[in-house]
Amino acid sequence: MGKLERHATIADVAALAGVSVGTASKALNGRGSLREETRMRVREAARQLSFEANAGARSLHSGRTYTVGMITTDTIGRFSIPVLMGAEDALGAGEMSVFLCDGRDDPIREQYYVKTLLSRRVDGMIVTGRRTEARAPIGANLPVPVVYAFISSADPGDCSVVPDEAGGARKAVEHLLAVGRTRIAHITGPEHHNSARVRAAAATERLAEDGLSLVAPPLFGGWSEVWGRQAVGILLAGRTEFDAVFCGSDQIARGVCDALRAAGRRVPQDVALIGFDNWDVMTEACQPPLTSIDLDLEGLGRSAAQMLLAAINGSPSPGRHAHPCRLVVRESTVRESTTVPLP
Amino acid sequence: MGKLERHATIADVAALAGVSVGTASKALNGRGSLREETRMRVREAARQLSFEANAGARSLHSGRTYTVGMITTDTIGRFSIPVLMGAEDALGAGEMSVFLCDGRDDPIREQYYVKTLLSRRVDGMIVTGRRTEARAPIGANLPVPVVYAFISSADPGDCSVVPDEAGGARKAVEHLLAVGRTRIAHITGPEHHNSARVRAAAATERLAEDGLSLVAPPLFGGWSEVWGRQAVGILLAGRTEFDAVFCGSDQIARGVCDALRAAGRRVPQDVALIGFDNWDVMTEACQPPLTSIDLDLEGLGRSAAQMLLAAINGSPSPGRHAHPCRLVVRESTVRESTTVPLP
DNA sequence: GTGAAAGCGCTAACAA
DNA sequence: TTGTTAGCGCTTTCAC
Asked: Which molecular function terms from Gene Ontology are attached (chains A, B) (predicted)?
């Protein structure tokens, strides 16, 4: 057979089948009315030539390309991936192909990508990023719909799908209350980070609804294990007693866990511990395994993609949509894991 | 202005500028010889209409789409990402757009993507995956060049760019020897995993070159921290003395580190410790920070993309290409970090 | 220096 | 049932 030199065209197929291109087109797309024998003959010719219709030429008529662009505003990372995957999954099911564009925190590069995507006549775009903060819209009066996923647009009229971080923080607190803890500390990331502020505020608020408050003001620091360990030092140096720690991330929680153990406090007997993000690497390696809040990023991405598909089909969903978080219980908050191992 | 209803065509631009479409085309692409005034007038009209030439229509002539497909054979994960990013980076610089296709370990899905990409007339494809093992070629006699990155093709004639894991393992051993250790243990992932076997064999071989051997047969297990901790238990239960541990991954090394500390052995004074992958999450959280081997996946992806670009331009690089690994020294092998902090 | 016309690969009217 | 034709948006001869 040898390596094919060029793609077969529908003219090649028509010639081989001994019909006109119009007939070949109908046969391959199931349009018009043709003799079954003719249809088969054309199909067979197409198969023989490994014919795949040129999508570009095709979209010249339909006006649609069945492609979408995904732009990450900052470098692709641990949070963008599941979002991208969820979106890719939902779009693939919708027969859409996805252009991946890594913005790398560079607005110039980002605008370049927007132009490129428009020249490729994508049917829509998804914009995502590493942080949940609002960002400037990627463009004004774009000729195609845009959905922001994880990150949100500063324009409230734009469609944004964001994790319900406040709801997640409330679930964390409610879980700690449900297992009988009332003296709760909160250790989290840097105060300038939107997620840290939102989660801390929501936790405080939820406690207030039960007439409680954090045993100490939230400890803002970094998102790292190192900070988790340091923060425990600070907490223990103070006189405040605590029977639970709600952490702004799993990495922090892991650091907290290690430091508590080193200080002779047992988890969960003396201190119940809950993280945020439900990152398997951390929740599994933690001793004991870590209870956490799952952002369901893949579901979020899928949901964003579905909204984009709807918008492309003329039914936009303007505004900010909060995607719910899930509580995942493990042994850092309850003695025995509630999950029953499979037999 | 209001939301644009449709994309402007070159006919719109020509009409607004009061010239023919042919002239407009020349003006916008810098072809032919036109009066400077005309050129400017057309450019201005294009700007006013936010005109972006339809790439699909354009490629109808050029025969090239300036797009490539990236297919991950299995789910996109920690190893595929940097490869994808490096490739996207190199391709973007080459004015190429990238179609992202997540194979999800499903051969059916994978073949579906290959067909889709061919119908979109991509100029080439990059195939990647989570493991370094060889895999069946993605297709035979494809009309466009294919480069395998990280993963490799079972067909030795295909172009594959893979990390030089054996070289990395040798560098790890050489570093341990250089810091004066000779009684080296090796703890790594499952024996059925290609990377585990290759790294263990290379380490053994390198030691043999100096008339040495591992203090015990390689301990194969899982890639997790949990296994690292368990393995230390096994090692200590045996009578064999050791002054260094070479681990098959950073997660294992981290587990080893924690367990050694718990057992009263100091790192690096009593035991020097080196990991593999140079995963920042682990190397930084480890106490002390972990020396490791970096696969330079982003560089590998970039290199693969460049080979693809070359192949598209008629200069293929058939065969298997080993991409070198880098040693990154931190405090788990030397008392004071050799990296000088910036002032 | 500019316009008219053909053609890239395909689909969809309309004829035959 | 099938073939012919026009046209999607663009580039590129070739006349003028």
From this structure: DNA-binding transcription factor activity; transcription cis-regulatory region binding
Residues 270-309 of A with CB under 7 A from strand C: none
Q: Which of B60, B119, B224 sits opposite A53 (nearest CB)?
A: B119
Question: Which residues in chain B touch residue A6, judged by CB atoms under 8 angstroms apart?
Answer: 63, 143
pLDDT (tens digit, 9 = 90+) per residue, A96-129?
999 999 999 999 999 999 999 999 999 999 999 9
* CB-CB contact of B332 with B176 (8 Å): no
Token couple for B138: 């993605």
**Nearest partner of B245 among B332, B170, B327, judged by Cα:** B332
The label of the residue with tokens 């239960």 reads B237
How far apart CA A177 and CA A204 sit, in angstroms, is 13
Torsion (CA) B265, B267, B273, B275 in degrees, nearest 10: 110
Gap between the Cα atoms of B27 and B34, Å rounded: 7
- pLDDT, one tens digit per residue, over B56-93 is 999 999 999 999 999 998 888 888 899 999 999 999 88
What is the model's pLDDT at position A342? 44
Q: pLDDT tens, B221-279? A: 999 999 999 999 999 999 899 999 999 999 999 999 999 999 999 999 999 999 999 99
B281: number of Cβ within 10 Å = 18
Name the CA radius of gyration of chain A, rounded.
27
Pairing label, strands B97-102, B134-135: unpaired
Find the farthest-apart pair of alpha carbons in chain B and give their distance in angstroms, rounded: 91
Q: What is the pLDDT of residues A276-285, one digit of tens each?
A: 999 999 999 9
Q: Tell me: pLDDT of B337 over 70.
A: no
Residues of chain A with pLDDT under 50: 1-2, 4, 337, 340-343
Computed on alpha carbons and rounded to an integer, the radius of gyration of chain B in Å comes to 27
Helix (H) or strand (E) holding B186: strand B184-188
pLDDT averaged over chain B?
94
Contacts of B44 (CB under 8 A, 6+ apart): B17
Task: Enter the DSSP assignment of B329.
Answer: -
State how far the Cα of A68 lies from the Cα of B59, in Å rounded to an integer. 18
| Distance, CA of A100 to C1' of C5, in Å | 39
Give the domains, in start order, of chain A with CATH numbers: 10-53 (no CATH), 67-163+296-325 (3.40.50.2300), 165-294 (3.40.50.2300)
Euclidean distance between the first and the last CA atom of chain A, given in angstroms as a whole number:
52
User: A167 and A199 in contact (C-beta within 8 Å)?
Assistant: no
Do A251 and B281 make contact, defined as CB atoms within 8 angstroms?
A: yes
pTM as predicted: 0.93
